[in-house]
């Protein structure tokens, strides 16, 4: 006859039957429901035969324990007590009901003709017993997915370059590789919790590395410009204007001094870019060359003096050549010796002033290279870094004001400015141990003064401005004319907004998260600094 049905087994192992259709691997397929009182479920649709299949009956022979479920128009709870289960009347001999030998549950519609059947079973429950079913391992990928989203947004919004706020060229590709590796684990349905956790930890580390690579300040190397200025100044001071042989035309020294002054202005400019410094070096060296070539006749004294200077410079390597700190490398010594020999040959054979000038410049370059080649002593910045960390933590939580526990603006600004100087020194390639040690003393003194300046009583002051902070905007209104507002990071990167008004709005939508200091400069020459945290 025709039938349809649904059902499930308590275990995933199929029974093995003997010639009499009896189960031979009972221990592998049964589930012990001893202590349970019955089975409940919700039923809707046609009448069905509910069967409990046990291991101690013939299989596939209709010897199951049964209960007839009537039809129901709506979902109806059906509770089947084990005492209500019975084998068909024609089964002989009958088996003894044993809840410790249950294998499967099934619901069937049986009929004599082929037709469509409609019924549903839901929320099957064992009554009177809590089942100890095999655990299904659930892998939690929520944390990994959040890290992937965070990293993807960071990668999308980041710009590679060399400007402040940019990320180093190639850093986005490195982050993307980490994102792709994490995504592979996330989409792997077979990934274990350990693999997911490890992927998240690896990606989180890549995120931190990428964020820390963001360019917050640019260190401009002015050492070549300083050397060029010193060289040009020496030539200027030792030269004589006149008409005699070896002298220089009237006015040529003033022209050279103009070039030196321009170069010095760039050297003194704390906002000068590396390109501006490099251009200043090129311009000054060109002015020196023009000056030297303007000499009356041939002036070999400049080359003679430069050879003497190089020879004296080479003495620095006496008993001081090698690879230890303070030593000069053998290659640098050899290069300077070769340059001296070349200059001596030019001195003996030169027929034009340009030959002399070129030799002077070439030898000066080798002197500079030799001096810069000295192997530096290791610099210990531990004390300074610790002090910076303490001062930054203190200033980030400090408040400027006249109330008890707040700090005066002057000591706050002094500590803030000194932190900028200290952070710049920490990343300067030209910093020496003497510089570091001196900075420790200076920063410690200013920090001590700041701590001692905390207000212990209320000071009567009149506020001249009011600041309101919204989601993405800082609004400042003042009774005094605001000349400009300067937004500064702890590392010293500054953005100035010129307003000359009583009111100014600053958009914070595009700035990164972190601590900033807003300096309000008034037209009357006074200023106020406040702390701003973007989260």
Features:
single chain, 535 residues, alpha+beta, 4-stranded antiparallel beta sheet, 13 helices, 12 strands, elongated
What does this molecule look like?
With 535 residues, the protein is of the alpha+beta class. Helix content is 41%, strand content 21%. The chain has helices spanning 26-29, 142-157, 171-186, 193-212, 223-238, 252-268, 274-293, 301-314, 330-349, 353-372, 382-397, 409-426, 433-452; strands spanning 2-9, 38-45, 48-54, 65-69, 72-81, 102-111, 119-127, 465-469, 473-489, 494-507, 514-522, 527-534. The strands form three sheets. Strands 8, 9, 10, 11 and 12 form a five-stranded antiparallel β-sheet that branches. It has a four-stranded antiparallel β-sheet with strand order 1-6-3-4, with no helix packed on it. Strands 5-2-7 form a three-stranded antiparallel β-sheet, with no helix packed on it. A hairpin with a 3-residue loop joins β8 and β9. α5 packs parallel to α7 (274-293) and α8 (301-314) runs antiparallel to α9 (330-349). The radius of gyration is 43 Å and the shape is elongated. The two termini are 73 Å apart.
Q: Which stretches of 5+ consecutive residues score pLDDT under 50?
A: 458-464
* Biggest pleated sheet: 5 strands, antiparallel
Query: What's the helical proportion of residues?
Result: 40-55%
Supply Rg.
43 Å
Number of helices: 13
Strand content: 15-25%
Q: Give me the secondary-structure category.
A: alpha+beta
Euclidean distance between termini CA atoms: 73 Å
Tell me, rounded to a whole number, the average pLDDT: 85
| Number of β-strand runs | 12
Overall form: elongated
Secondary-structure element series: EHEEEEEEHHHHHHHHHHHHEEEEE
């Amino acid at each position: 006859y025709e039938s349809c049905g649904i059902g499930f087994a308590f275990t995933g192992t199929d029974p093995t039957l003997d010639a009499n259709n009896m189960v031979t691997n009972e221990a592998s397929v049964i589930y012990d429901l001893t202590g349970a009182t019955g089975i409940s479920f919700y039923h809707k649709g046609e009448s069905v035969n509910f069967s409990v299949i046990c291991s101690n009956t013939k299989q596939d022979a209709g010897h199951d324990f049964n209960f007839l479920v009537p039809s129901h128009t709506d979902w109806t709870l059906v509770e089947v007590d084990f005492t209500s289960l019975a084998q068909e009347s024609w089964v002989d001999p009958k088996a003894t009901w044993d809840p410790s030998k249950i294998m499967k549950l099934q619901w069937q519609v049986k009929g004599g003709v082929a037709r469509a059947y409609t019924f549903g079973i839901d929320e099957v429950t064992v009554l009177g017993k809590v089942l100890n079913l095999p655990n299904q391992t659930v892998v939690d990928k929520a944390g990994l997915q959040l890290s992937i989203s965070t990293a993807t947004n960071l990668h999308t919004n980041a710009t590679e370059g060399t400007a402040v706020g940019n990320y180093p060229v190639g850093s986005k590709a490195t982050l993307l590789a980490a994102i792709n590796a994490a995504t592979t684990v996330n989409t792997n349905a077979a990934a274990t919790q350990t693999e997911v956790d490890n992927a998240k930890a690896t990606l989180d580390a890549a995120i931190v590395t990428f964020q820390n690579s963001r360019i917050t300040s640019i260190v401009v190397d002015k050492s070549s410009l300083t050397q060029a200025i010193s060289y040009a100044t020496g030539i200027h001071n030792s030269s004589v204007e006149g008409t005699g042989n070896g002298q220089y035309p009237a006015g040529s020294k003033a022209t050279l001094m103009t070039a030196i002054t321009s170069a010095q202005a760039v050297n003194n400019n704390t906002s000068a870019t590396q390109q501006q410094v490099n251009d200043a070096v090129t311009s000054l060296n060109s002015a020196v060359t023009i000056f030297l070539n303007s000499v009356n006749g041939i002036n070999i004294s400049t080359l003679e003096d430069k050879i003497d200077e190089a020879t004296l410079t080479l003495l620095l390597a006496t008993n001081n050549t090698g690879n230890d700190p303070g030593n000069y490398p053998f290659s640098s010594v050899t290069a300077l010796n070769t340059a001296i020999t070349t200059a001596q040959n030019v001195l003996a054979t030169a027929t034009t002033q340009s030959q002399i000038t070129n030799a002077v410049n070439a030898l000066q370059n080798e002197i500079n290279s030799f001096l810069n080649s000295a192997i530096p002593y290791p610099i210990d910045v531990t004390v300074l870094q610790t002090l910076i960390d303490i001062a930054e933590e203190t200033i980030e939580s400090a408040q400027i004001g006249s109330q008890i526990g707040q700090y005066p603006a002057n000591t706050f600004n002094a500590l803030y400015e000194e932190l900028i100087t200290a952070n710049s020194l920490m990343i300067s390639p030209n910093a020496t141990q003497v510089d570091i040690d001196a900075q420790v003393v200076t920063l410690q003194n200013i920090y001590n003064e700041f701590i001692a300046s905390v207000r212990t009583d209320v000071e009567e002051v009149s506020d001249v401005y009011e600041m309101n902070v919204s989601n993405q905007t800082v609004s400042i209104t003042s009774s005094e004319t605001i000349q400009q507002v300067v937004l500064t990071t702890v590392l010293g990167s500054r953005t100035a907004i010129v307003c000359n008004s009583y009111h100014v709005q600053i958009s914070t939508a595009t700035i990164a998260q972190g601590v900033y200091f807003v300096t309000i400069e008034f037209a009357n020459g006074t200023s106020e600094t406040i702390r701003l945290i973007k989260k």
